[in-house]
Amino acid sequence: MPIASSSRRRFVAFAAAAALALPLVAVAKDAAKDAAKAKDAPQALAFAKNGHATAKGKLKGPDDVVRNYTIDLKSGESCTVAIDDGKSRVTYFNVFPPGAQQKETEGRTRTDVKANADGTYTIRVFMTQGAAVKGAAASYELTVTKS
Description:
Blueprint (H helix, E strand, L loop, with lengths): L4 H36 L2 E2 L7 E9 L5 E8 L4 E7 L6 E6 L13 E5 L4 E9 L1 H5 L3 E10 L1
Parallel strand pairs: 1-3
Antiparallel strand pairs: 2-8, 3-7, 4-6, 4-8, 5-7
Protein name: Secreted protein
Keywords: Signal
């Protein structure tokens, strides 16, 4: 049974619209991936003349629960790293020495770091697993002060 001409026109119009929409979906997916990569990329913290560096951010479970920051230190330099998330108490950090996969500190809200080598140290801010699974959100302020 042949398709009526008005039905055929609707089908052709629908098929053409679908064909045009597919590249747009691909572009949207690529943009979302690029945004996620940008969010995951470490943010370099610059020390002001007073020796302070700060970063403010927000984490939201279950998927957006980690941020990475970097600081450059010379061997022998010391700094204090602290995080404040108000009343949430679900945001912590680890510090990684240059090139290391092993953390130097274990889930802290405040710690003193003494650089054993020149290089870029990574501060990984994260939300606790329990809070992330529940979909909690927490705003925080990370402060690094050279001593």
